[in-house]
Amino acid sequence: MPWARQSGHVAVLAGDRVVLLRRGEFAIRAGVNLAGEPRDDVSVDVVVPAAQVHELPSGSPVSARAFRERAALARAALMAGAARRALELSVGYAGEREQFGRPIGRFQAVQQHLAAMAGEVLLCTAAVEAAALALDGGSGADVAVSAAKAVAGQAAGLVTSLAHQVHGAIGFTEEHPLRHATMRLWAWRDEAGNEEEWSAGLGQRALDAGAEGLWPLITGTR
User: Fold this and answer.
1) Residues 48 and 119 in one domain
2) Which residue intervals define the domain Acyl-CoA dehydrogenase/oxidase C-terminal in the entry (predicted)?
3) Looking at the structure, do residues 26 and 75 belong to the same domain, yes or no?
4) 164 and 106 in one domain?
5) What is the C-alpha to C-alpha distance for residues 2 and 37, in angstroms, rounded to an integer?
6) 117/185 same-domain check
7) pLDDT digits over 77-122, tens only?
8) The domain containing residue 44 runs over which residues?
9) Could you tell me which residues come within 8 angstroms of residue 144 by beta carbon, excluding any fewer than 6 positions away?
């Protein structure tokens, strides 16, 4: 759980009930993700009074699935921003770093790297925006969010690889801004489910929809 160590209360969803736990009723083991951001383990082994247990209203949209979808979309949005930052840094560096008497950005191989990164950034951004609109509209959100997290994860792999190829060794140094973007991409890629997990879910939905239901599933008109 991000920043759990700063929490005075924790809300736990248990079926159709929400349990509110106070500090001291749950244990925290502090940890960090790959980028060094706080990611803590929270464990609960306590009997709570009935006053801290609240039943959800009938028809409430609150569910474990809804929380997971929102967590996945949030990570995908963060990844889109970090990928764009990696692209901006790479374009800037390629225009400044000279090799063989000219900026490396004038070499076709580097230009191809930058173009591939730009394509992934645009695809990731478009997928995130589509998922946010679907979630806001309440139609086809599950498919759109799955696609956004899967696309963001795939983009993270390619963008980080190409960005570090453009920068060379300097991009891995602790003080270089590229490292801060790519380390977060690698960390967020696995949070709230990685691209393999979300892609598998999409594939299963496509199989379940069958030939007649595939197009409505893709277009959100089902």
Assistant:
1) no
2) 72-184
3) no
4) yes
5) 8
6) yes
7) 999 999 999 999 999 999 999 899 999 999 999 999 999 999 999 9
8) 4-55
9) 127, 130, 131, 133, 134, 135, 220
Q: Are residues 93 and 180 in the same domain?
A: yes
The tokens describing 126, both together, are 């478009």
Q: Which residue has the tokens 């691209």?
A: 195
Burial of 211 (0-12, 13-18, 19+ CB in 10 A): exposed
Q: Which residue in 133, 128, 159 sits closest to 146, CA to CA? A: 128
Q: Please give the average per-residue pLDDT across 4-24, as a whole number.
A: 92
E strand map for 1-81:
9-14, 17-22, 27-29, 41-43, 53-55
Give yes or no: residues 145 and 207 share one domain: yes
In sequence order, the β-bridge partners of residue 99 are 102
Give the integer Cα–Cα distance in Å for 157 and 176: 19
The structure tokens 């679907």 sit at: 134
The answer to whether residues 74 and 49 belong to one domain is no
Phi, psi of 107, rounded to the nearest 5 degrees = -85, 140
Provide the whole-model pTM. Answer: 0.89
Residue 138: per-residue pLDDT:
66
- What total number of domains does the chain contain? 2
> Which pairs from 36-43 meet CB under 8 Å and 24+ separation?
36/183, 37/2, 37/184, 37/187, 38/2, 38/3, 38/4, 38/5, 39/1, 39/2, 39/191, 40/1, 40/2, 40/3, 40/4, 40/5, 41/1, 41/4, 42/1, 42/4, 42/10
